[in-house]
Write a structure and sequence with these properties.
homodimer; alpha/beta; 8 helices; 8 strands; globular; disordered C terminus
Chain lengths: 219, 219
């Protein structure tokens, strides 16, 4: 039976994996929940609770063996085998993602890009960029389930339709277009503008509150 | 007195702004909460509740005047005036952000990049890229409060220290490094790998559950 964990917990699991890989490169063989908690600025009881829920066990004295935890985490995430991902829209953001080297640790392999611009299409680059009309066949042949959308905003909806037709099951959407989805496809949004605007809002609130602080009376 | 709204609500406000701008370019002058709700795939009662909390009023019959709502939203977000932002790390992701045209609607202006690589530093480009040792002076002179970090992972912590020293108040961090922060600086993380790995996890769960579905008996 498959257990479904919530998104926050899975994101935390990915963070644990990242920090454990870093501990490992530093020569550590075992870690304690306190090590992980301090590095991530969270409570060690949360780390232990998460590990309990995921069935990761250690002992109070000896801590956790890093390789054991990593194997368990990879098993849960399904990242023991590489996951093939395609990208649609090989403009600046798209090109940056195609050439990004950091995905491998998380079992992610961007195997191809697709675009409509003949100047961008190039099948001989390290990660080939094909014309968009080859997408459907490629997805079927390679059994691709995941796609990244990094097209201009106006192309977001037509691109979604193409991906849906091709049988894609999950989409990471870098456009600001919120895609209405009644097809069971999982869509995650990476809205850079909104994250930045959000940050600006909270920084400005913080600064205006600083100015309103009641001065301390020293005695 | 300054009201502090939670992050989810502010992100929704940004989404409202995006869809209202799109309605406006389509020639709309007024909208109803149902229009917004349908376009965003949320309930219209949530839209009305948000508008109520933000003090945006309309009337049942005539709906809301788009320009009125936009003015109000910009007032809340502080995006009536442009917010100057700097970027550290002008590699592929950084360059993509420096050239991204979508920020203006949200009142965001990336005014400069900073890097250590002499091949990347170029003060004559549309958005100049300066050597990192000019950052502090630039931040002070231009009164910059917000920075984006798009450096290689190992440079994340030293970059954070430089930004802290310079007096930066808010950081959008594109590196996978989780920055421990006891300095009151607001740090938002954009972790592309983790979003993608998270998506892969949920898609795989979905697919394995599909295979377990009890077949319908047709009669």
């Amino acid at each position: 039976v498959t257990k479904l964990y919530d998104k926050e917990r899975i994101l935390r699991l990915l963070t644990y994996k990242g920090i454990l890989l870093r501990f490992k490169t530093m020569g550590f063989i075992r870690v304690f929940s306190d090590n992980i908690a301090e590095a991530l600025d969270i409570s060690s009881s949360l780390v232990r609770k998460d590990f309990g829920i995921f069935g990761i066990s250690g002992n109070q004295k000896g801590g956790y063996h890093i390789d054991n935890i990593l194997g368990k985490i990879n098993g849960i995430l399904g990242t023991n085998e590489m996951q093939k991902v395609i990208l649609v829209g090989a403009g600046r953001i798209g090109q940056a993602l195609l050439h990004y080297k950091g995905f491998e640790n998380d079992g992610i392999n961007i195997v191809a890009g697709f675009d409509t611009n003949p100047l961008i299409i190039n099948e001989r680059t390290e990660v080939p960029v094909y014309p968009i009309d080859k997408l459907r066949e490629f997805v079927k042949k390679q059994k691709i389930k995941i796609a990244v959308i990094a097209v201009p905003e106006l192309m977001a909806l037509p691109t979604f339709e193409i991906l849906k037709e091709a049988g894609i099951k999950g989409i990471l959407n870098f456009t600001p277009t919120k895609i209405k989805n009644s097809s069971g496809i999982i869509i995650n949004h990476m809205n850079i503008e909104h994250e930045l605007a959000n940050l600006i809002y909270f920084v400005n609130q913080d600064l205006s509150q600083e100015q309103n602080v009641i001065p301390q009376i020293s005695n």
